[in-house]
# Entry
Amino acid sequence: MLFSTRFHEPIRRGEVTDTFRRWKRPQAKVGGRYRLHTGGVLEATSVEVVAPVSVTDADARQSGFASAQAVLEALEGFEGDLYRVQFRYLGDLPDERVALAADDDISGHDFEEITQRLGRMDGGGRGAWTRDVLHLIADQEGVRAADLAARLGRETVRFKADVRRLKALGLTESLEVGYRLSPRGRALLALGGRRDSVSGESRQAGESGESGEVGEPGQSGGGEG
# Structure
């Protein structure tokens, strides 16, 4: 659940404690924690479907708008039920993903572990979607999620869920509009070709009876990530 930058300071000051969203299915849950991209964490305390006619001007001001009409106008063009999410600001809690995303020193062991996790994510019958999404974000930094989803033939909600899974591995970062690869994500893609090449050469050497140092996964590309 993302918020435009203009809401961040009012949220921190406790002036904005609600948000209204149109969703086909709920994208927040009670107890769920959501991070502002400028720093700070909030926790959802209530998630409920409401009728548009029930939104008052007072409710709107709690969500950072001047009137109920302004809230509803801001949501024009979005499909789904109208949800009211109430939340509390928890403060600027540390985000372990930030440190992970900034770590572009990927060892051979790290590479194998990440690759295995991506492989498990790919194993849901959709094929190797994780690399497709990473390459798409690399090529289309700052592009709206809806536009990226359309390029892959995915629903926007499901595409966002895919990206969140990659973000949990420290591979992507959210922008106010769209996404970008993190330093770790860029390093992974840069290493991917070299690791695959090394693996292929190693297999060929094994088949021809040759031996060598090419197949040492811990040394290939070391320190270049």
